[in-house]
What we know:
By secondary structure, this protein is of the alpha+beta class. The protein has a single domain (5-87), classed as 3-Layer(aba) Sandwich (Glutaredoxin), CATH 3.40.30.10. 44% of the residues lie in helices and 20% in strands. The chain has helices at 14-25, 41-47, 67-87; strands at 5-9, 30-34, 56-59, 62-65. Helix 1 links the parallel strand 1 and strand 2 (30-34). The radius of gyration is 15 Å and the shape is elongated.
Amino acid sequence: MIGSVEIYTKPDCPYCTKAKHLLNTMSIAFSEQKLSVDFTREFLMDKYPHAKSYPVVVIDGFHIGGYSQLAEKVETEFDKTTQLLNEGNI
């Protein structure tokens, strides 16, 4: 199960939009932090120095990467849940 999700976004970022859409589609709650509204680039680089692009996705306090890593994590968790549900039908 995916825990607490926080995403750092910037305006006009297609991958930020895709990340939020994915989370909403899967009914995964998240908090969004917006560049120049909720944080500065300097703050983000100090907090997550390995972040190189947007969105910056943080799950349970750990930076996991961007949209691709989020999609992989969501797919893995979905597959695990499906497997557990199917095992109950045996």
